[in-house]
Input
Amino acid sequence: MTGSNRIAGYGEVSRSKPVTFTFDGKTYQGFEGDTLASALLANGVHLVGRSFKYHRPRGFLSAGPEEPNALVGISRDKTRSQPNVRATIQELYDGLIAESQNRWPSLTFDVGAVNDRFSRLFPAGFYYKTFMWPRSAWDKLYEPFIRRAAGLGHSPTEADPDRYSNRYAHCDLLIVGGGLSGLTAASEAAKSGKSVILCDENPVLGTGLRSDLRTKFSGKSARVHLNKLIETVRSAENIQVLTRTTAFSYLAQNMVALAERVTEHQASPESDAPRERLWQVRAQKVILATGAIERHMVFDGNDKPGVMLANAAQTFLARYGVAVGAKVGVYTATDTAYAAAIALHQAGIQVPVIVDARSGTLSAIGEEARLLGIKVVNNAFIKRVNGRLRVQSMVVEHQGTRETFDVDAIITSAGWTPSLHLFSQSRGKVAWDQETRRFLPGDYAQECQSIGACNGTDTIAELISEAVSAARWGIGSRARAKPKIPEIEDEVPASGGMIGADKGAGPDNPVKAFVDFQNDVTAKDIRLAVKEGFHSIEHVKRYTTTGMATDQGKTSNLHGLAIAAEALGKDIPEVGLTTFRAPYTPVSFGTFVNHNKGELFDPTRKTSIHDWAVEQGAAFEPVSLWQRAWYFPQDGEDMHAAVARECKTTRKIAGIFDASTLGKIEVVGPDAAEFMNRLYTNSWTKLGVGRLKYGIMCREDGFIYDDGVVGRLGENRFHVTTTTGGAPRVLNHMEDYLQTEFPDLKVWLTSTSEQWAVIAVNGPKAREIIAPLVEDIDFSPDALPHMSVREGKICGVPTRLFRMSFTGEMGFEINVPSNYGRAVWDAIWDRGAPIGMVPYGTETMHVLRAEKGYIIVGQDTDGTVTPHDAGLSWAIAKSKPDFVGKRGLERPDLKADGRPQLVGLKSLDGKTVLEEGAQITNRMNPSGPVDIQGFVTSSYWSETLQSPVAMALVNGGRSKMGETLFVPMVNETHKVEVCDTVFLDKEGGRVHG
Amino acid sequence: MLLIRCPYCEQDLPELEFANAGEAHVVRSSDMVGLSDEEFETFFFIRENPKGISFERWRHVHGCGRFFNAARDTVSDTFLLTYKAGEPKPSLDDLEGQKK
Output
């Protein structure tokens, strides 16, 4: 059945297209064009959820995006489920599955509702009051309890399988809101040749006025006028219309972010369409036509299922042909609710009474209602609402007398709040209008104009003029012609209204009159917060959590403000409005994350030799964006065994290592040596062509920034290497000084990191393995000594052949163009493998260098370590007049005694591998505060030495050689002896082969 | 996302192409070694961080690669001016006039 509450002749749904859906397991029918809300109401379902704090039964407050109550979970399957979806905007599709939230075991019987009984225990700020003591109860009792109770709905437990997309767009004019104002502006901009984007959060355009069955445009219904405008706009080639698209964030320089829901309304989503699309629109001009949101009356029991906004009832009737009740009471402080009441009455719904909080004579529409036979009571209020899961009756108090009316729904209106969300986000200043008692756009901060209801323009004629002139501003038109305004009849403009609690919910009546439905904040809570000393509205908001739920107080903020102002004895503008923040309505994580997940989260860099390592079964580790071979396990070896074998074999025979990820920068030009002198601590002037040098780069403060081996390939050409992770920032650092401090130097810098593959071959047999492959280079030990570089060929491919070592063994780093990396690697492998050469990965590289005391910048240094601290004073040229860091190194603190210095540590038990990062103390089992002496920076098991090796930064470390210190670890405190950082081959003979 | 005008490319381009590089017009002495500790402190550590017009360095790192200077209002996040490295610091009074 499609619902017994449908009224024939009303609504825009397709009555020939029934749609089946389920809510809490029960099957219902609606029509294509329904929202979940309208379809449920058509079936007489008002109870759709439980409130957050008190678990009170809740129904629909609104028919639109401002909905605070009717949040449901929508799911298609296990992976596609979404909590907290507003039933008022979820379009119905065949097979839709909806579940109510925040209830157990069922919606009609919810155990959590005991909170409502004991609501006196849950006043404003109850978390702060209740869960403070005893402290020990927090971890075990309070926090787990709060975590279980907090939050609405359930997140899906599996990864989101859907695709989301992102688009950038530029336009001359963006119009936000496709109601009468936005459509009128867009229609004026049609055929202007300017690019226009019109977006609206609803599936159809013109939604506000579509609910108005009363107002006539030159004798015809509003819909006829709307349809004409829509046709003009849709057929204009210069206008892109985006429906189901919410402008949720207004950023700097007229960038507006839009979220387009592409398939959320489809029964079978198109497989090639994204679920949602993020638009980042840069507009020359923006027109905000965001409308106004109706406020509810704040009275006792105003949250019971069946109490809703007047405009919502009118919308359910006019757009969906649904009666929200058979007997509907009205409670208002504004005229527009009368129009709603009359519309309902004319559709055959009983309207027993209109209760108006205002006093004085009736307006014209009031008289009209009375003439239709509707009872109107002025200067009255709703004292009480009876009914638990649905409104049953209401008690009206009027000048001391009470009368009860049987009703099954109550519609309310306290007036209209202009939607300033986007205007405020654009950093426009809101201004209080005393006459109409509302905030309106004040000073604009960007190229933007507000029109229509969001600008406080209440009558249709004024609104049309305003929209036309804004459109002319938006497209830069000089047209002066007066806009054509149809003859408007029977209009009921928004006027009057009240802000704050009604008479029955005043300071002396501690009743449950809700201000914020979603966070369960009552008028009483706000008064209590003020009484407890929270006088700033920002504090009141956070203490009571009013306006902080997912609806961000669209219906409640003004009420909350007015009640706080009254309690403070201040005027509303004195108390001030809280800040509007993006997003306007909730946006799914998927839309923000977009393509940036999985493999697309970050690029992965791979060397030309990567695939070889994969074929060999290497384990990999990420180093910055690179994937580097970590170790090469054989025959079921674990990492420890593999690394031990790789280390031993490299020192005994040879090892081959992919060093391609090293950063490389070509420094070229007549002043290249001078530039190097200024950027590195070392002196480069006398470095001969064909020689290498280990260089240290400092920042201006004297701390080590990067290091690497540099080769001089010519008088004016240096091949600089950097750490793998440091390459981009080192080039940036060099460019910075070259462009801004030393622009007089003739030097050019080029990143060549990815141009060269680097194959490192180390070990006693390294020369024997490589020599036959090399051409044009004299490979004899005397002609190519340690720390030299030659250009020539290997395997017929051009190479820069570095003779250097990061292992302490005789070593070569063979640079070849990346495209040849794999081929040269294969050729070397073919020669080396038969004599026992092993491939090794980054872990072995770390062990081998640590045995030799070679530092790794970023591991043995941390940005507060000078070359002196690291034991590298020899690398600082003393005679240079200046280099980056020279003055910094002279700072008194950097020259003081007791600075952390890099030293070696020997585990006295001869077997414990210390934990990297472990702290070092000077007492065995200190009690009380500990005087930390430093920490371990590098630590490994040395297979060659059959002992652990470690480096550490220790305060005054070099003066503590031979002393015993202590390293507390999880189970035991270990004794260590301070020693030199070089553990193996102190004389350095091995590098010479 | 801001649009930033690169004074070398002479185009307004998205912020994604640029990287901020700290305060502008901090002069590195030609006699660094001669600086007193106080002078070094001022040069290296002390920054204006104004509420209002801030002079700062930017690099068009994903474009032409050039460093340039900008005057930005830190209150409104508006770029008032960008200009090439080495060009003189614009007068604050002139820029105040441009503020929104």
Summary: Helices of chain B lie at 37-44, 92-98. The mean pLDDT of chain B is 94.
